[in-house]
User: Fold this.
Amino acid sequence: MTRALAVTRPDVPTGVIAIPVRTRLVHRDDDLVALVADAVHGIARTGDVLAISETAVAIAQGEFVPAEYVRPSRLAYTLARRAGALATINQPESLQLVIDQVGPWRVLYAAAMHVLGRLRGKRGVFYEIMGEAITAIDGYTGTLPPYERAIVFAPRDPDAFCESVRERSGIDCAVVDANDLEKAKVLGASRPVDRAAVESALLDNPHGNADEQTPIVVLKWRGEGANPLVGSVA
Assistant:
């Protein structure tokens, strides 16, 4: 049974409704466009926006690796032990993948600058320096086997995926990275989608971060006038 949740954020117009949609477990090489179209049949319609979890898209594309396949170096173990609670850098396997991509010296430089930044009251310097090299890797935080220790990478060409969903279903789409820390980022979207508006609507993370198995959230507009989540195609 689906449940509609009113989005009550101060920067989101009253009338936006979020409906988490449960699906079967997504696997490598799934036709995720078809899975999404089947899952939202009878729930979503033209004018809505389908917010799809980036993790589901990446898994269907095969963009993940089991942590057991990665052998962390001494540097990865040393830095991970000194990291905070953020998943990617406190897991030696995930951090090793970053080291493999950019090299140990850049990681050491970023770590040193991070320490100096903390001494000056600034946080997040490590992530600023590493940029896409680290934001493209999602540490293993899953709760559903067999992905509970899978390190998931960023999905490939999320814009193209969203356009495929729109062509197949007639409904606009966004691939999103959302969590329970009131952070949401649109990684890709079909052209009419207002990315900033969708991000604001997902700050309460209706997808869930546990075992809800709801990688799709249908965003509906039940207010007056045009849907604020969808603009016009130029």
